[in-house]
Specification:
Number of helices: 7
InterPro entries: NADH_UbQ_OxRdtase
Distance between the termini: 67 Å
Strand content: 5-15%
Protein name: NADH dehydrogenase subunit 4
Shape: globular
Number of strands: 2
Helix content: 55-70%
Order of helices and strands: HHHEEHHHH
Keywords: Membrane, Transmembrane, Transmembrane helix
Largest sheet: 2 strands, antiparallel
C-alpha cells in the first residue's frame, strides 16, 4: 500500500495551501528567543550565532513563503489565517498580507538580520539583548501582518517594550530623546480614540 504521485501532490498542495506561514513567522523568533536563556553562558559567542541563525532562518522562511505562496498579480489579502483566540471578547487571531505589508515584512527581516550582525560588539547582558531583538522582530512581523485592530494594537505595544528596553540599556549618548519618542507616539495614537 503506497502513495501514488497524484496522492502525494494533493497532500503537498493541501499542506502548503493551509499551512500557517504567518503564524510561524510571528511565533518563531519569540519562541526561539526564549530558549536563549537556556544556552550555556560561555561568553557571547553562542548567543550571537544562535540569534544570527534564527534571524537568517526566519528571513529565508519568509522569502520562501512569499516567493512560492504569494501571487503578485492578486491585489487582495493573501496567506490568510483566522482562528478564534478569546471567545468571550470575540477576539480573533487574524493574519494576512497584501502587497504593501509584503515589502514591510521583507524589509523588517532584512534589517533585523543586519542589525543583529551589527550588534556583534555587545557584551553586556548579551542574552537579554538578543532576546529583546528577537522579541522585537516577532512583534514587528505580527504588526505588519495583523488584520484585526486589537491584535494590531497588542503587537504595537509588544514592539514598544523591547524597543524601550534596548534603547534604555544599550542606547548611545542621546538615548533620553530616543526613549521619549515611542512614548510620544503612543500618546499621539491614542488621542483620536479618546477624543
Amino acid at each position: 500500500m503506497g502513495f501514488s504521485g497524484q496522492n502525494v501532490s494533493c497532500l503537498y498542495y493541501f499542506i502548503m495551501s493551509y499551512f500557517p506561514w504567518l503564524t510561524i513567522l510571528v511565533i518563531l523568533p519569540i519562541f526561539a528567543g526564549s530558549l536563549i536563556f537556556f544556552l550555556p553562558h560561555k561568553g557571547n559567542k553562542i548567543a550571537r550565532w544562535y540569534t544570527i541563525s534564527i534571524c537568517s532562518l526566519e528571513f529565508l522562511l519568509m522569502t520562501y513563503a512569499f516567493c512560492y505562496h504569494f501571487q503578485l498579480e492578486d491585489p487582495l489579502i493573501q496567506l490568510k489565517e483566522d482562528s478564534k483566540w478569546i471567545d468571550v471578547l470575540d477576539f480573533h487571531w487574524r493574519l494576512g498580507i497584501d502587497g504593501l505589508s509584503l515589502g514591510s515584512i521583507l524589509l523588517t527581516g532584512f534589517i533585523t538580520t543586519l542589525a543583529t550582525l551589527a550588534a556583534w560588539p555587545v557584551t553586556r547582558n548579551s542574552r537579554l539583548f538578543y532576546f529583546l531583538m528577537l522579541a522585537m522582530y516577532s512583534s514587528q512581523i505580527g504588526l505588519f501582518s495583523s488584520r484585526d485592530l486589537l491584535l494590531f494594537f497588542i503587537m504595537w505595544e509588544l514592539e514598544l517594550i523591547p524597543i524601550y528596553l534596548l534603547l534604555s540599556m544599550w542606547g548611545g549618548g542621546e538615548r533620553g530623546v530616543c526613549i521619549q519618542l515611542p512614548s510620544l507616539f503612543c500618546i499621539l495614537q491614542a488621542v483620536p480614540f479618546f477624543s
